[in-house]
């Protein structure tokens, strides 16, 4: 399967907009659908320090996330994105097997830009819920430019 999305419109039949919070201590953000905006062929994903109170689980931050509704397997992936340069914000592109919340076999590949230093991309990957690659954290790659 192959696809390209120029985001001239936001196709909700293809893209799922996250609108929930999770009851755990390591996830500090609730996702709000209103924080995803389409304008002029771009999607903006917002984040701020608004305390989420209308979700099941109160979180100190509110952010945004979109996910494709389709399955994509082995292949070539390309993303054109601008990372946030704000300290504490993680701008990311990730692939996972969509069984993260209920499965015994969590598989995931992350490309993460940490707002404190967007000249480096952090890559994590998990197989059967075990971190692979770097033993003590993500593989860090110096980009040679600022992604923010």
Cα shape: globular
Radius of gyration from the CA trace? 16 Å
Q: Please mark out the parts with pLDDT under 50 across 5 or more consecutive residues, or reply none.
A: none
Q: Would you tell me the overall average pLDDT?
A: 86
Count of distinct structural domains? 2
Counting helices, strands and paired strands, the structural category is mainly beta
Regarding quaternary structure, what we see is single chain
User: Can you count the helices?
Assistant: 0
Strand content: 25-35%
Distance between the termini: 30 Å
Strand/helix succession: EEEEEEEEEEE
Give descriptors for this structure.
5-stranded antiparallel sheet, mainly beta, 148 residues, globular
Description:
This protein is mainly beta. The chain has 2 domains: 1-70, no CATH class; 79-148, no CATH class. It has strands spanning 15-17, 29-31, 36-39, 42-45, 61-63, 66-68, 90-96, 108-114, 120-127, 130-132, 139-142. Strands 7, 8, 9, 10 and 11 form a 5-stranded antiparallel sheet that branches. The chain is globular, with a radius of gyration of 16 Å.
Summarize the structure.
InterPro entries: Beta-glucanase-like, Beta_glucanase, ConA-like_dom_sf. By secondary structure, the protein is mainly β. Helices cover 0% and strands 33% of the residues.
Task: Provide the fold topology.
Elements (H helix, E strand, L loop, with lengths): L14 E3 L11 E3 L4 E4 L2 E4 L15 E3 L2 E3 L21 E7 L11 E7 L5 E8 L2 E3 L6 E4 L6
Parallel strand pairs: 2-5
Antiparallel strand pairs: 1-6, 3-4, 7-8, 8-9, 9-10, 9-11
């Amino acid at each position: 399967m192959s696809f390209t999305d120029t985001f001239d419109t936001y196709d909700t039949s293809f893209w799922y907009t996250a609108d929930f919070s999770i009851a755990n201590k390591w996830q500090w953000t609730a996702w709000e659908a209103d924080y995803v905006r389409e304008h002029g062929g771009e999607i903006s994903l917002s984040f701020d320090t608004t305390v989420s109170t209308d979700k099941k689980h109160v979180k100190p931050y509110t952010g945004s996330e979109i996910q494709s509704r389709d399955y994509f397997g082995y292949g070539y992936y390309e993303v054109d994105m601008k990372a946030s340069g704000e300290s504490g914000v993680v701008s990311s592109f990730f692939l996972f097997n969509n069984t993260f919340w209920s499965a015994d076999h969590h598989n995931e590949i992350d490309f993460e830009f940490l707002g404190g230093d967007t000249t480096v991309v952090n890559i994590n990957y998990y197989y059967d819920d075990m971190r692979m690659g770097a033993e003590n954290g993500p593989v860090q790659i110096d980009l040679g430019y600022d992604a923010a």
